[in-house]
Design goal:
Order of helices and strands: EEEEHH
Shape: globular
Number of domains: 1
Strand content: 15-25%
Number of helices: 2
Helix content: 10-25%
Largest sheet: 2 strands, antiparallel
Radius of gyration: 10 Å
Low-confidence stretches: none
Strand order of the largest sheet: 1-2
Number of strands: 4
Length: about 60
């Protein structure tokens, strides 16, 4: 099980999962919206503490 770096949801690492690679690591997402947010500024989501799934995505 992976954690979406944008919203903090648990995500299955399945064949059809929404994912991308960044700096040699694979990241999994709960939705295309989270993937898009990550794609625009990956460092924004990687430099902070693990996401809080109860917080709204800005």
């Amino acid at each position: 099980m992976a954690v979406d770096p944008v919203c903090g949801m648990d995500v299955e690492e399945s064949e059809g999962a929404i994912k991308t690679e960044y700096q040699g690591k694979t990241y999994y997402f709960c939705s295309k919206a989270c993937l898009l947010a990550f794609s625009k500024d990956p460092e924004k989501f990687l430099e902070k503490d693990p996401p809080d799934p109860l917080k709204e995505i800005s």
